[in-house]
Amino acid sequence: MSLLLIIFTSWILCIIAVYLKESQLIKRTWQEPYFANTPILIESDDWGPGGAFQAERLSQLLARLESHKDSVNRAAVFTANMVLSVPDINKIIADPNFTYHRIMLNEGYPEIYQTMLTGINADLFVPQLHGLEHLNGEAFARLCQQNDPRIAAAVSDPHNWDWESLDSPLQGHYVDGSHLPTQAIRPEEAQTTIAIASKTFQELFGYPSISTVAPCYLWNSNIESIWQHNAIQIIQTASYRCDGRDENGKYHQDRRLIRPGDLSDCGQAYLVRNVMFEPVDGRNTPDTAYHEALSSYLQALPVSISTHRYNYTRSEESFRNSLNGLDLLLSNIRKTFQDVRFVSSPELGEQILTANAPITNHFNNAQWPPVKHLTGINKIAPFLTRLYVRHQKLGLLAYLTGLIIPAWLICKIANPKKLKRGNRS
User: Fold this and answer.
1) pLDDT computed for residue 331 by the predictor
2) Interacting residues of 50 by C-beta distance below 8 A, sequence separation 6+
């Protein structure tokens, strides 16, 4: 009995010491949102102008998503991060001043645009602003004037080109990457670009974009302020913010750690991607993505799946592999996770900013029950799991002191995030 008392006392003293040293970390982690229903998001960048075949690819993708239903019988919903235009290269080259000209999605690519509208009406496709384009217009026009070899592939096929053919630094929207290190665009240029993008987005889809993700994750506080003045309340990230790239092209992080539900200086809610499914890159499989999703599920976090457009617009073989892989990933999530809810990014952001409000798809006025949150003691197990997963030193300390034993028991017995008995495919 005395030995147990010594162990118990040492644990209490250790917990007190850790709390005194890491009180801010512990408080912030406890105050994060915890979800009883697990939100499942499918986040896909770079949708917009492209080859006409992409309309059929998108139709097949949405049809596959429609077969997956959540705990309230809603189909999987696709958050498509929209690029609204591409350069009108012929006009740029013909312009004696090399002024930047653009081709809008609905004007130059009607098949893709109509497929998107059909998906919106079916509650399968939710657009979200990515950028007016996936490059810096002024810099691109200047490179056209200079016959810069970095844009040769783009100029060779003006209608069917893909911005992914550009060097990576040139794909930033809110920076000028024509020379390294990159330079943030001028405030007046940013204001004009975002105002046009916001107006165009609403004209195309019937409702303003209240959420966004910056191309190449390159933006700064000034951009956030301009977003806020253009009705954008929610910012999607990959757990960090980069304001530029250095002389070697390396990303510079000016906010190194962003958690879901953190707020910007302007009061916008951050969302964070935590599951990578990019099979064309050769690194992510349905199995690796499932284990990332499982980790988020046990932490009572949203499961935010990142899967770029290029996974579905390359070769037919790559498309089938990506489509079947996403299908398998969603099947395994539904088989083993309890109470999953398919939501879009703007919907989840609104749930964080206004808890317990009904979910509303503003693009078609469909409504769904709110996503339930965990509160009080129900948060303890996923809270401990977040600390263990995120902070290696705390995990090591738990092993060295033996605190891992009661923490493991709490997570095993008291975690409300149980797995179903169904087996994965």
Assistant:
1) 97
2) 109, 112, 160, 162, 309, 313
**Going from the N-terminus, what domains does the chain have, and what CATH number goes with each?**
2-30+378-413 (no CATH), 36-368 (3.20.20.370)
Q: 105: closest CA among 68, 155, 58, 140?
A: 58
**So what's the pLDDT on residue 116?**
98
* Cβ(242)–Cβ(184) below 8 Å: no
d(CA 43, CA 349): 13
Region class of 285: left (phi > 0), else alpha (psi between -120 and 50), else beta: beta
pLDDT number for residue 1: 59
Using alpha carbons, select from 84, 92, 93, 139 the residue that is nearest to residue 112.
Answer: 84
Tell the residue number behind the tokens 């064309």, with chain if given.
Answer: 280
Segments of the chain scoring below 50 in pLDDT: none
Copy the structure tokens of residue 222.
């000034």
Give the other-Cβ count within 10 Å of 423's Cβ. 8
DSSP string across 288-333: HHHHHHHHHHHTT--EEEE--GGGGTS-HHHHHHHHHHHHHHHHHH
